[in-house]
């Protein structure tokens, strides 16, 4: 689990439960206003505020912003929506004492912490005294202090009884352990050889008091060959210790596929004759959110998705979308067999080739499906006007997190902007007016930054250099190669056509650079399995059209759903 920078203060808070699953957290929340803070196992240990509000359990991920270390300021800031705090306790104190809602969309207010009853920890001497008079006498027989390093080998034994270490040995399972304690080894290394390498004064008086030991324990893995110390094992720092080997004690986890380094030969490979058309859509697997057979727009699934997206900060959602888009485009996670079949090493190259027709159609469907799902997030809010304005704000913040210089996922940015610019959404005058009134910064960013940026990207004149962009904007090139005509006057359409073709050539040429940038953006990222699934094309297709309707022709499906969105828009704000 990743411990936040203010981990010492956080671990001592009564409302912090450490590593806790969502299901166990919801079982502890009984009444409206109850809350706790936990470390999410699916989010790499990031702090999550779980609360109960209006009978429902809600989960809000706390976004952590790392700062450059400087004297006099914190190393990280924590935030839910707008305001940032120097520590998690400061954030919780502000929201609880000020009775402030954790999010504008839900209005959830927390007031009663659910405390964690930590077990009382007993010292070594207390455990010894409770085990009988024989061990008590043996403890009293020691006449020197064990605070010096030279006594590590004699811990629990007297000078006259060399077998005392066995008499005082306690099984690891007998030691009480809390959520913040390190995991003890099942078979710790013997410490008999430590005394020779760590000789001190053997209890003799010194002219100068020894230096105060550091607060962080000096422990590392035995024989750690160029590996950083890990907190999962406690082994004294010595040059050579006989004991459990590294491979047996704590195996190194495998790196995820999006962090796998590309072979240099694969990057520099030349074009070979393609064998078959390639699809990068993940195979159909049992869904953790949908059943084997589902109807379109099931209310329970929509409610689960709403809570799932509210739990994650826009920056986290942007990284999830970047990961799924990179896989759908064939930028990351391409196998050797897929490369051999398509003749090139990247989906960005395949898009420009004649046998990339299947991939182009899949990306067009993904773009349109994501846009429809984003519009549904706004048009499906049948509650008060502020709820729809908050949904608009969430989409704007997600678009800002996807733009160049941030996540750099331009296909995801295009899909979110397509939802915001959809006629059924843009006609909601009262909703947009409420957005400008309640969330002025988001409204200004949409009008002054996002709309001009999207216009430039569609015209082939936007930013596309690897570095600030991890995944380029492929929709104009895909539409052009699939036969769609370029709109606008003839002279402007010709210039736009030439810019699009020029950008496509550069996109294919710079595919290895985009791959490196995307892998760097996702380095250390551990996605939430449910949110990752919710952003895939196959899941969204089944969510919008059901398990039966998902197999209908693409044009027919999109035409029907556009009519559904039109009806929802008219119900929210009828024409006057």
UniProtKB/TrEMBL annotation:
Keywords noted in UniProt: SH2 domain
Matching InterPro entries: Ras_GEF_dom_sf, RASGEF_cat_dom, RASGEF_cat_dom_sf, SH2, SH2-Ras-GEF_adapter, SH2_dom_sf, SH2_SHEP1/BCAR3/NSP1
Keyword ATP-binding assigned: no
Organism lineage: Eukaryota, Metazoa, Chordata, Craniata, Vertebrata
PANTHER family noted in UniProt: BREAST CANCER ANTI-ESTROGEN RESISTANCE PROTEIN 3 HOMOLOG-LIKE PROTEIN (PTHR14247), SH2 DOMAIN-CONTAINING PROTEIN 3A (PTHR14247:SF11)
GO molecular function, one term: guanyl-nucleotide exchange factor activity
Superkingdom to which the source organism belongs: Eukaryota
GO aspect biological process, one term: small GTPase-mediated signal transduction
Name of the protein: SH2 domain containing 3A
Organism: Mandrillus leucophaeus (Drill)
Listed PROSITE patterns: SH2
